[in-house]
Amino acid sequence: MPTQSQKPNPHADGEPSLQELLDDSIVRLLMQRDGVQPNDVIDLFAFVRKQLIAERWRRVA
Q1: Where are the domains of the chain?
Q2: What is the DSSP letter of 14?
């Protein structure tokens, strides 16, 4: 049985997902304090993603 230090890292292949971050209790408390809703963050990430994709297409064209 693995000890605390031997537990496999669930994010060994990369970063936690946005949903995992938004599900974190400390992140939720900070967002609540700042008046930010989870959908605000999701919408912001979607907007930035679209802008980055558009910029990449402009560079290729």
Answers
A1: 37-61
A2: S
List CB contacts of 42: < 8 A, sequence separation 6 or more: 18, 22
> In sequence order, which ranges of 1-61 are alpha helices (DSSP H)?
18-23, 25-34, 38-60
pLDDT at residue 27 in the model: 97
pLDDT in tens, 39-51: 999 999 999 999 9
Q: What Cα–Cα distance (Å) separates residue 30 from each residue in 16, 25, 33, 43, 45? A: 18, 9, 5, 18, 18
Q: How far apart are CA 36 and CA 33, in angstroms?
A: 8
Spatial contact of 43 and 22, defined as CB atoms under 8 Å apart: no
